[in-house]
Design a protein that fits this description.
Elements: E1 2-7, H1 14-25, E2 32-40, H2 47-53, E3 59-64, H3 70-83, E4 87-91, H4 93-103, E5 109-114, H5 126-130, E6 135-138, H6 141-151, E7 156-158, E8 181-185, H7 194-204, E9 209-213, H8 219-225, E10 230-234, H9 239-245, E11 248-249, H10 260-271
Parallel strand pairs: 1-2, 1-4, 2-3, 4-5, 5-6, 6-7, 8-9, 8-11, 9-10
Helix pairs in contact: 3-4, 9-10
Length: 274
């Protein structure tokens, strides 16, 4: 079976890691995946394509000329035919819309995973699209219930995110910072509440070091607000070693689906040997 996974991304965060990991694992079960990533002209970011390719996943880029590009639908439809995909699995509101349109009037199954329920204006097509999907999945019971209650989609299956604990064995710390070290691992965006993390750092003062791991649109603003006990580590590709460096992990988000950060930190703790 061949499955085309589709995602539009602004970086490598929880959903992107989950999708890349899923694509890397599927061949063990006889499924041949391809990850197709939007190459958006108005907001270019193909980091997840490079990340997944590094895991051995077959990756394709889907050029998209604007917020809605009819030609991108045509290109996606051609890619589906070219790879003879039986299923298109969309991740996120933009992927949902394009995946649905590209599979209409065909025998290709269209399924979607909701990584975080959101009713913002960018999601205005999600309800009619998901109500017509062959299957809808959610990464947590809360997201599943939100889809049922807010969108009226009854048949939503909850499949929680997961991590492989074997990735967190034999790891040494990579952040050489004064201890105790309190960390936040997230995209630096409003819904993740990094400003609240800075307020905690300010209240605790110089008795501890606070580190933000990740990048995002609020980084410059947060750096201006941060005190001397705050360090910005940026995007890291050595997360097991980052978790091994921390004494405390803080996740102050206002809204999550099933946060990979928490799962990764729990795996780190479970596999840690004093």
């Amino acid at each position: 079976m061949r499955v085309l996974h589709l995602i539009s991304s602004s970086g490598v965060y929880g959903a992107e890691k989950m999708v890349a990991g899923l694509c890397a694992a599927l061949p063990k079960f006889g499924v041949l995946p391809v990850l197709e990533v939007f190459d958006n002209a108005h907001s270019p970011n193909i980091d997840v394509a490079e990340y997944a390719a590094g895991m051995g996943v077959e990756v394709r880029l889907l050029p998209c000329g604007g917020r809605f590009d009819v030609n991108a639908v045509r290109r996606l439809r051609a890619d589906i035919r070219r790879m003879d995909a039986q299923i298109v699995h969309a991740h996120g509101y933009k992927a949902n819309l394009y995946g649905f349109l590209a599979t209409r009037a065909s025998r290709v199954r269209f399924v979607a995973t909701n990584h975080r329920f959101d009713t913002g204006p960018q999601n205005r097509f999600d309800r009619p699209v998901l109500s017509r999907a062959d299957a809808v999945y959610a990464v947590s019971d809360e997201a599943r219930d939100s889809l049922r209650d807010e969108y009226g989609i009854a048949d939503v299956v909850s499949i929680p995110n997961g991590v492989d604990p074997r990735d967190y064995t034999g790891t040494t710390a990579s952040l050489d910072l004064p201890r105790p070290l309190v960390g936040m691992v997230a995209r630096l965006a409003p819904e993740k509440a990094p400003a609240d993390f800075l307020e905690v750092a300010k209240a605790v003062g110089p008795t501890a070091t606070f580190v933000l791991v990740g990048d995002g649109p609020l980084r410059e603003e947060l750096q201006e607000q941060a005190g001397s006990n705050v360090v910005f580590a940026g995007f890291r590709d050595d997360m097991p070693a980052v978790y091994a460096s921390l004494d405390i992990l803080v996740q102050p988000s206002y809204r999550e689906g099933m946060p990979m950060t928490i799962l990764e930190a729990m795996a780190m703790r479970a596999m840690w040997k004093p």
